[in-house]
Amino acid sequence: MIYKKLNKTIDLISARSYESEEALLISVIEELMNEPMMKVTGGRIWKLDQEKEAYLLVYQTGQMEHIKKRFLLGVNDYPLFDQLMNERTVFANETNTHLQKIGIFRYAATGLGSKIKLNERKYYEYLIGLNTPDMSQEFKYLLNTISAVLSSKMKQKRSRTSEQYIKAEIDKARELQKSILPQHEFTFFDYELYGLSLPAETIGGDFFDYVELGEDHDRIGVALGDAASKGISAAAEALYISGALRMASTFEIKIVPFMKRLNRLVSRVFGDDKFSSLFYGEISNDMQGMFIYANAGHNPPMFIKKNSDIITYLHPTGPVLGPTPKAKYTLGNINFEPGDVLLIYSDGIIESTNVEFEQFGEEWLESLLTRLHSLSSKEIALGIIEEVVKFSANGAYSDDKTLVVIKKKDL
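Above: the chain sequence. Below: its structure as tokens.
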């Protein structure tokens, strides 16, 4: 959930007005230092100076002694810069003697902004260096995600397109998106499914889909995804992932290899300033009610048994799609019995905000599911959406709202 939390925090930060991009990046570093889970004790912002062929220090903060102003790091002096272009985020030992003298020995660095060609090589426009004791793979995933969000926000602020062109493209995208989304209701052996999606704008970055699998259609894939940006770019990414999912279904690709390939595709096709979360699972006519799934950084779906008020969460089994092309994914599984319900949803459900800036939240969603889970999948889905829409009427924040309810019919 920290992926989504940080994304929303940075989303709110970047929505403000700033004198410069450096001011935006400074606000983000300060937010990271204020987040206890990040364990960040210091940070620096470097900007590529093409004339000097070096990175110029434009900001620094933290507990260590400060570097002298306008300090430069030559692009040819640090192999790290080439490594950043391949991995986006790296952990490294400091090799500059001046920086070692002031107490910088090991750090995390991530690249962001545009990729600029210099002497037949490419370099990130900005680098953020952070001091932290946490050099875990999870922290690397987080920095990749932060970098992707910031790069996307900076690109959005720079781009300017005519209002007429945008309107025409939105109209086309809206019609295409409506034609691809599946019908709300679906029955598969003794399972009933009901899904719906309410975009916050004319078009949205959420999607859900049902995909029949196997020559005899003895399995069905269920997907719900959320592209992190908004508008046309988010809708394009969502449609691409949905199309890739349908294409993969014809080749009978197993879930884990599929998630790995899809992650690499999203990274390559949409660049490193975009990412999406995705939950994907498969139901079969297996008598044991086996449901296998992979969760790429998505909100954990809620699973509730027929005669229980206990909610089981299906937590992520890998990071969001895009920022980390070499990420690994694993499988999870649950077993459906008659009357059991699985609720899959996007963050627009729990992050819907009322006029008092309160969020709908997981606890309220849990209580709703507990109260409604004896009903049909359609009644559960519509009941939840009705409550969310009522709660967020005239609220300050609105995002796409998408959910899918799966229920094994009560015999």
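The longest strand covers residues 106-118.
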